[in-house]
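Box 3.1 A note on notation
Throughout this textbook, protein chains are presented in two layers. The first layer is the amino acid sequence; the second is a token string describing backbone geometry. Keep the layers aligned when reading.
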Amino acid sequence: MSTNAEKAYQLFLPSVGQEEGVGEWFTIDQARINQFADVTLDHQFIHVDPEAAKTTPFGSTIAHGFLTLSLLTHLDTSIPKGDPARYAGMAMGLNYGFEKVRFVNPVKVGSRVRARSVLAKVELKEPWVQTTRTMTMEIDGQSKPALVADWITRIMYP
């Protein structure tokens, strides 16, 4: 008899290489950028001083790269997760880290972003199913994304 993790793994396999979906738009405003600066103690003018930032090539403040990366947790919640049977009996999910992260394009204040997910890899690591998803954060109206990251998560099945 197979375990819950083995059953889930088999259900994930056919989706490897396929897009899982696209999430909802989310606006990054100056208040959020300022809050992130306060939490991380990163008050570089390009993030928090709108007047000084006007003189840069961007013409406005931009979000911290790590702010955009951390927003993947929220943006991921609106992406469809495929067959619900893959999560039957799941105990918890954990962020395991990133294989690769690239900050491709700055996110100007007031921009709307959303995440697109492709299931790149799935591995069985009893009692876990480990997934690697290529997450692309799109910027509304821009051809280049804000970031592309290979995000590894582990789902535990008792």
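Residues 4-156 form a domain with the Thiol Ester Dehydrase; Chain A fold (CATH 3.10.129.10). The longest strand covers residues 112-125.
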